């Protein structure tokens, strides 16, 4: 029984370890592009667009259909005819036309010869395909941006948790020193109580940050499309600061957002052209070949000996439709389409300004954060030295417990400020990479 239990525990342990994944930023981004629902749906839109194009093309191809009918006439319609036709002038005779049973079968064909809306749809097909490809590209960039931002947030929170753990351990050492002094009558009870209270506060902060880490990790997994129960590890080497090259502003016309809106403008132009096509005539070829069976019995499988006769007939023709007056409805729809185009053009201008602003802001944040990181790093080193000296002075009786606790608090604050400065830099870095249209480089 013990062996079975041991094997079971080992199996559970191996399963748990198998679920732990070490994620670099590249791993996280590539995983999201394969598994996140947004990325999958964008690819499905491309696939669906191919079927939409096939549907448009079908309107230019022959339309062939078969038809059949079987009709029973319980009461035949009668017409009144002049009796002279039957050698009875001056009299009216009622004559029933048709048979009790009528059956028909045939095939019909229709081929569009000229329809401006069909031709417009065919020309718009390529633009529509490019639109969905750009939409897929933009969706992937949005997925990358969300994953990268969340990834760095998880890293910073984990760093804060590490700092809190280290601070708790150092405070515990101070508590042991103060307790030893108190036991030997060299420290007051209030000093020991202050240390204990500080440890409780640190432990409370640690639990809060641990909860924040879990929530942010869950958010990262959601943005990646990864099962929430999966355990992840993030290498520390992924959080190094590498200053970006701040060159001239990138060309907005290369951004996916801008290109997508320009494609939308093209599609709106085609939409307007499709409405204007209602002014043009349409011409189509129609043809049909049919069989007609009539008789007092069900015509199916019956013969002339049963009073049932079959005959065939066919037709070929042209259908021409020339619009003359539509109550100004077409003109109104054309003008509405034109307004949609002008509205889109205004959105494009606004988007271009927004993208330029995004770059300028990202560039400014990068420059400011580089200075902030340098200052906070120097401040952190200084705070560490002050804490170290204050601790030595406290042990030698040259500094008070208050000085030591204040130095610890200042050191923790300096370390947190440094990690927050790095996070602000990395987020600004993502935005800058985005403004250059280079988010896909994070997948390499």
UniProtKB/TrEMBL annotation:
InterPro entries the UniProt entry points to: OMP_efflux (IPR003423), TolC-like (IPR051906)
Family: Belongs to the outer membrane factor (OMF) (TC 1.B.17) family.
Domain of life per record: Bacteria
Primary residence: membrane
Lineage, highest ranks first: Bacteria, Pseudomonadati, Bacteroidota, Flavobacteriia, Flavobacteriales
Subcellular location: Cell outer membrane
Species name: Flavobacterium granuli
Pfam families, per database record: OEP
Signal peptide: 1-18
Keywords, alphabetical: Cell outer membrane, Membrane, Signal, Transmembrane, Transmembrane beta strand, Transport
Name of the featured protein: Outer membrane protein TolC
């Amino acid at each position: 029984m013990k062996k079975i239990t041991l094997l079971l525990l080992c199996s559970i342990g191996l399963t748990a370890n198998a679920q732990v994944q070490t994620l670099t930023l590249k791993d996280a981004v590539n995983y999201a592009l394969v598994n996140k629902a947004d990325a999958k749906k964008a690819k499905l839109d491309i696939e669906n667009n191919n079927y939409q194009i096939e549907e448009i093309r079908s309107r230019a191809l022959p339309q062939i259909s078969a038809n059949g009918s079987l009709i029973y006439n319980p009461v035949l319609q009668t017409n009144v005819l002049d009796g002279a036709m039957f050698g009875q002038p001056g009299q009216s005779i009622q004559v029933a036309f048709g048979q009790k049973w009528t059956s028909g079968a045939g095939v019909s064909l229709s081929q569009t010869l000229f329809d401006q809306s069909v031709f417009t749809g065919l020309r718009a097909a390529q633009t529509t395909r490019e639109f969905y490809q750009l939409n897929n590209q933009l969706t992937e960039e949005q997925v990358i941006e969300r994953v990268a931002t969340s990834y760095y947030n998880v890293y910073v929170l984990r760093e804060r948790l590490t700092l809190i753990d280290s601070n708790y351990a150092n405070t515990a050492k101070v508590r042991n020193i103060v307790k030893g002094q108190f036991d030997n009558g060299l420290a007051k009870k209030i000093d020991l109580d202050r240390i204990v209270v500080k440890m409780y506060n640190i432990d409370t902060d640690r639990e809060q940050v641990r909860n924040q880490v879990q929530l942010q990790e869950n958010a990262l997994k959601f943005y990646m499309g990864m099962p929430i129960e999966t355990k992840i590890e993030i290498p520390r080497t992924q959080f190094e600061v590498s200053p970006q090259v701040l060159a001239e502003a990138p060309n907005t016309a290369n951004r996916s957002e801008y290109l997508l809106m320009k494609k939308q403008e093209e599609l709106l132009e085609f939409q307007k052209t499709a409405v204007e096509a209602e002014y043009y005539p349409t011409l189509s070829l129609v043809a049909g070949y049919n069989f007609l069976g009539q008789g007092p019995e069900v015509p199916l499988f019956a013969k002339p000996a049963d009073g049932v006769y079959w005959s065939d007939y066919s037709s070929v023709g042209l259908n021409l439709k020339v619009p003359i007056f539509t109550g100004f409805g077409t003109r109104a729809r054309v003008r509405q389409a034109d307004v949609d185009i002008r509205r889109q053009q205004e959105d494009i201008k606004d988007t271009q300004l927004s993208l330029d602003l995004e770059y300028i802001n990202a560039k400014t944040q990068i420059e400011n954060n580089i200075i902030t990181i340098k200052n906070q790093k120097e401040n952190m080193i200084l705070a560490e030295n002050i804490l170290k000296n204050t601790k030595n002075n406290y042990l030698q009786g040259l500094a008070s417990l208050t000085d030591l606790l204040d130095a610890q608090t200042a050191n923790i604050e300096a370390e947190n400020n440094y990690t927050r400065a790095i996070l602000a830099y990395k987020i600004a870095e993502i935005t800058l990479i985005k403004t250059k249209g280079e988010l896909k480089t994070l997948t390499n």
